[in-house]
Every structure is written in structure tokens, then in C-alpha cells.
Amino acid sequence: MAEILRIEDLHVHLDTNTGTVKALNGVNIVQQYEEVYCLVGESGAGKSTLALAIMGLLPDTATVPAGRVIFDGVDLLRAGDSHLRRIRGKDLSLVFQDAQAALNPVQPVGQQLQEVILAHSNISGRAAASMSQEILKELGLPEPSHIMNQYPFALSGGMCQRVMLAIALVMRPKLLIADEATSGLDVTLQAEILERLKNLCRDFGSAVLLITHDMGVVAHMGNQVGVMYAGTVVESAEVLPLFKEPRHPYTWGLIQALPRLDDARKRLEPLRGVPPDMVNLPEQCPFLPRCPKAVNSCRLEHRPLMQELEPGHHVACYNPVIPEL
Ligand SMILES: Nc1ncnc2c1ncn2[C@@H]1O[C@H](COP(=O)(O)OP(=O)(O)O)[C@@H](O)[C@H]1O
Ligand SMILES: [Mg+2]
User: Fold this and answer.
1) Which of 120, 135, 53 is nearest to 88 (CA)?
2) Mutate which of 16, 24, 49 to test ligand 1's pocket (most atoms within 8 Å of Cβ)?
3) Do residues 48 and 96 lie in contact, with contact meaning Cβ atoms separated by under 8 Å?
4) Pocket around ligand 1: residues whose beta carbon is below 6 Å from it?
């Protein structure tokens, strides 16, 4: 297998009036072609900052003190704007939570979809229209020819989300980044749209970087998982080993907090404490104040590095959880 995305030691700082937010602190991710990689973590972990950094869409207040973002063999941080403009919307696309805000309010959605197609290919307007209808149908929109003439305000949140996904997928990207793309929707709708997304991406050969705060979504979607905490990936593995044998106490806590159908005795145990202040991040392990497994050696003045505990299972922790036999 070959790599579609390799992120190496990525740091992103965001300047604010109250100090520098250290949003990303050495992120490492390797994703293969056609793979679904789920990035999961609480609000504020840096997930959206990572998505924007990959897309080259960080705000002007951002600096990137270190790191590489190698997409399809090219380091996007050093590639220049023309390269980014060429691949964005074609090989690499992004959908985020608030689709209604991302769509142009004064243009019918069909036109917005066709513009993306025409910007990246030489086909006729008629062919672009039929491609548009086709993808809208695949995303579960009834009567696509009618939907095409609608303005975003006339569509429900779920419909706008489907339209945004259609725009992001119509060029069959090598990588789709879906940042909480279905999080605002009710659970049934979310499951249906994710299922379509998964099937379409499989058909198109598109890899997906699926960003979510919801472990349930990870269980349903992922091949590979990265758990993010305070601007770094603290554990990464394939989905099954991660759920079966989480090694980082944070991952363990996230999984414990999931509702369980098979075991009525398990109560929901929400994680205690709050994520650290990203302006005044300690040099120590950032999970230390919340960690139920912290031992003296965890108080070292530098954070634990990622180590491979099992083949393909990486954890950044001084005192990893020992799997139950
Ligand atoms: N434009 C911004 N300016 C300053 N701080 C920001 C900005 N965007 C996000 N942050 C801060 O950066 C950190 C990471 O945020 P974000 O990437 O949005 O996390 P997530 O998507 O995981 O919720 C948070 O502490 C957040 O408050
Ligand atoms: Mg976010």
C-alpha cells in the first residue's frame, strides 16, 4: 500500500489577544490510499486546525513552526498556492459541519456543484449537469433535478450536508476530509449519510480523513484511528485493536463512556476533568491532570513520545493500560 497522506511533526500556533494558542504540537499521521482514517477527540483537541492546515486554509493569525504535510507525494506546506488551487476540490476536498454557511446563499446549489466540475474538467455543461444529478442521487437526495434549482435556505440542514458532500466528492478526490460533517444531524440521518459516504468513497477509491468527537462513528466507519488530545495524536491503531485493547488512558476513558448494549451493568462514565489550556500548555504529559493511571514517572518534565506497543499500535503514554486477558 502507498501513502496518500503523511503528516510529520506538525506544529501550528494561532495568535490571539490573550496569547499564542498551541493548537498542534507535533502531529504524526500516516494514511494509505483508499483508507478511512478516523481522527477522534474532544472539542478543542486541534482536529479542525489540522484539517485547515492540510487544506492550506489556516487563518492569517496562524504560524507553522515545524512540520510537513505530504499529500500524494508533495509537501503542501512548501508547494505554493498554485499547486494547492489545482488540487483543492479535485484531488483533495473538505466538508465541515456547517454546510449551510459554506454554500453560497445567492446561487442555486446545482450551479455550485456544476461550477466545481467545470473548473476541474473539460466536459460540457450538459454533461456536468447530469454528473451533478447523479451524485446528488447517490447521496440520497430525492428528485435531484428539483434540488439543483434550490437555494441553500430552502433546504434542510441534512440536505445541505448532502449537497456539500456531493460537491466534495463529485471529482472523485484522492482524499476527502470530513470534519464533523454529520455531527449536527440526528443519529438516524447521520448513520444513513455516513453509510452513503463510505460506499461512495469505496466506489471512487477515495480515502477519507473522518474527523469526529464521537467514538460510535469511529466504530462504524474506520479502518484506522488516531486519538487526538491537546494538539497531538496520543494513540493510533486499527479500529478493532483500538476498541478491544485501548492502551492510552484517554482512549480507554472515551470507550468506557460509550453506551453498551451487551452489558447492562456498565454505567456511562464520562471523562472527568477538562482539556488543558492550549495557551499555557505544560511540558508534561498533557493528560496528566485527568489521568486515572498516572504514576510518579508521569510527572517528568517532557511529554511521552509515541512508541509502538504492538505492530501498528502506537501510544504516547508512560504507563499504558494493560489489556485484560
Ligand atoms: N482562529 C482561531 N484563533 C485562535 N484560536 C483558535 C482558532 N481556532 C481554534 N482555536 C483554538 O485552537 C484549539 C484547537 O481548536 P480546533 O482545531 O477548533 O479543535 P477541534 O476541532 O478539535 O475542536 C482550541 O484551543 C481553540 O480554542
Ligand atoms: Mg472542530
Assistant:
1) 120
2) 49
3) yes
4) 14, 16, 21, 23, 41, 43-49, 59, 61, 278
Ligand 1 pocket test, candidate residues 48, 98, 177, 214, most atoms within 8 A of CB: 48
Measured between alpha carbons, how far is 136 from 155 in angstroms, rounded to an integer? 13
pLDDT digits (tens, 9 = 90+) for 176-229: 999 999 988 899 999 999 999 999 999 999 999 999 999 999 999 989 999 999
**265 pLDDT higher than 70:** no
198, 221 in Cβ contact below 8 A? Answer: yes
Overall average pLDDT of the 275-283 stretch: 92
Q: What is the DSSP letter of 323?
A: P
Confidence of residue 271 (pLDDT cuts 50, 70, 90): confident
This prediction has a pTM of 0.95
Cell reading at 269: 462514565
Q: Is the pLDDT of residue 124 over 60?
A: yes
Q: Which atom of ligand 1 is nearest to the CA of 24?
A: 14
pLDDT digits (tens, 9 = 90+) for 138-150: 999 999 999 999 9
User: Distance between CA 80 and CA 59 in Å, rounded?
Assistant: 16
Using the CB atoms, write b or e for 245-277: b if 16+ within 10 Å: bbbbbbbbbbbbeeeeeeeeeeeeeebeeebbe
HSE of 80, CA atoms in CB hemisphere, 13 A: 2
Closest residue CA from atom 3 of ligand 1? 14
| Residue extents of the structural domains in the chain | 223-325
pLDDT of 324? 78
